[in-house]
User: Which sequence fits this backbone?
């Protein structure tokens, strides 16, 4: 059944050089880098704060900025600047030589620092604003239709950065995309006080495996960390919502409610079999931690082989060292693949399965790269680029590349590319990549 929406005139809320859709750290860093270079930039975010999964999803970990040997820094730019800002207010703890948790963040402080970055850079911001549809005239993308408490309106711009995570702009433009049949499931995090006292002296993975059916808890994988500056508050990520695509409205609704139910169920289990009377639920995310939805068809698909063998690209715009970390859709637990050829399958409550994905070699790569081409959508829209987890990448590579310190760099690259395209009056695909890499480096990024 269909309903026809009548045509109507709507106001233009704002006109800019560059429009960034999505206010995760990826989107904010894109907007800030372009604005610092002199572009007039607007950023649109559906939540009440910037930061995406880090803030709205409570995921308070940024991974290491070093290579796998911890003898070379490979990431800097706005990621490092933001860490330094947080450090000045006691909002970050660094875990040296730890690839599982390079930095623990107070994500409430992160919200404030991202506000400051946006305001200091004179980026026009719209929070509580939902992207609705693209405005295309004679085959050219000229605006984005949005809606907020002021009603429906348009944002006009010359260039657009899709940092929505789910590739919403590209999807509504009809650009080719794919959804992996084994897309990584979502996790609802929670901040809990007294967590460590509540789980003290118990084997939580064993208890979860033994009593999961009693509480309706699916097998998955759990981890957590302290919240800097918040005494006795622990962020726990132990839920797993299978087979629910967060790019689908009904599935996302289910995921949000199911994730919260699982948080309560885990706490109930600890209360019964541990020391749950010492715990209190402090906060739940305003948006579930979505790992993967759409991938947009771009000029190059980054592969697992590219990542695991540390392939270098002449158009590289980001570097990463986080291991491949696949949260399975078709079985419990996760698989880790390391650049040195080792592999581990971890299913909580069972012995760790250690092996190799390749034979030992004399030299191993210590980082991998993401090429600019993987951000350039195929199709007729020359003024659109993607930045974030919707990049073109296969299932294996995505397991490592998807983490936030990597995605942050893609935002910066998209923002600088947008500035070059603006000043040279060209499309994203014809931006000179060496000029892009040089400008990224001049702005504080590490280019290798």
Assistant:
């Amino acid at each position: 059944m269909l309903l026809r929406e009548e045509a109507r005139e709507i106001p233009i809320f704002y006109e800019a050089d560059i429009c960034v859709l999505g206010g995760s750290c990826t989107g904010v860093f894109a907007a800030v880098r372009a604005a610092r270079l002199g572009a007039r930039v607007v950023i649109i975010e559906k939540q009440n704060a910037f930061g995406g999964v880090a803030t709205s999803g409570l995921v308070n970990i940024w991974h290491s900025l070093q290579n796998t040997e911890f003898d070379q820094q490979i990431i800097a730019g706005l990621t490092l600047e933001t860490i330094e800002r947080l450090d000045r207010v006691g909002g970050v703890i660094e875990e040296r030589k730890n690839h599982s948790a390079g930095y623990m963040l107070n994500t409430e402080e992160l919200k404030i620092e991202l506000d400051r970055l946006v305001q200091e850079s004179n980026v026009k911001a719209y929070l509580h604003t939902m992207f609705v549809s693209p405005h295309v005239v004679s085959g050219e993308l000229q605006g984005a239709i949005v809606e907020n408490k002021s009603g429906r309106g348009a944002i006009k711009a010359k260039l657009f950065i899709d940092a929505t995570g789910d590739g919403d702009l590209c999807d509504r433009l009809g650009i080719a995309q794919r959804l992996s049949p084994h897309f990584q499931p979502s996790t609802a995090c929670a901040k809990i006080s007294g967590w460590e006292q509540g789980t003290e002296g118990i084997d939580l993975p064993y208890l979860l495996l033994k009593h999961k059916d009693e509480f309706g808890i699916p097998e998955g994988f759990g981890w957590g960390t302290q919240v800097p500056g918040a005494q006795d508050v622990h962020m726990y990520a132990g839920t797993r919502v299978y087979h629910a695509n967060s790019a689908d409205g009904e599935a996302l609704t289910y995921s949000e409610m199911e994730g919260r139910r699982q948080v309560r169920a885990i706490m109930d289990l600890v209360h019964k079999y541990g020391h749950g009377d010492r715990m209190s639920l402090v906060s739940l995310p305003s948006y579930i931690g979505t790992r993967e939805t759409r991938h947009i068809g771009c000029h190059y698909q980054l592969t697992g082989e590219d990542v695991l063998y540390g392939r270098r690209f002449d158009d590289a715009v980001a570097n990463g060292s986080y291991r491949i970390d696949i949260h399975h859709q078709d079985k419990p637990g996760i698989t880790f693949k390391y650049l040195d050829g080792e592999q581990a399958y971890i299913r909580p409550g069972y012995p760790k399965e250690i092996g190799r994905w390749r034979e030992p070699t004399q030299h191993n790569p210590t980082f991998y790269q993401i090429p600019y081409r993987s951000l350039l959508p195929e199709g007729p829209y020359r003024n659109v680029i993607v930045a974030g987890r919707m990049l073109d990448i296969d299932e294996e590579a995505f397991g490592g590349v998807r983490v936030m310190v990597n995605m942050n760099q893609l935002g910066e690259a998209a923002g600088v590319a947008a500035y070059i395209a603006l000043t040279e009056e060209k499309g994203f695909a014809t931006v000179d990549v060496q000029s892009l890499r040089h400008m990224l480096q001049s702005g504080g990024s590490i280019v290798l």
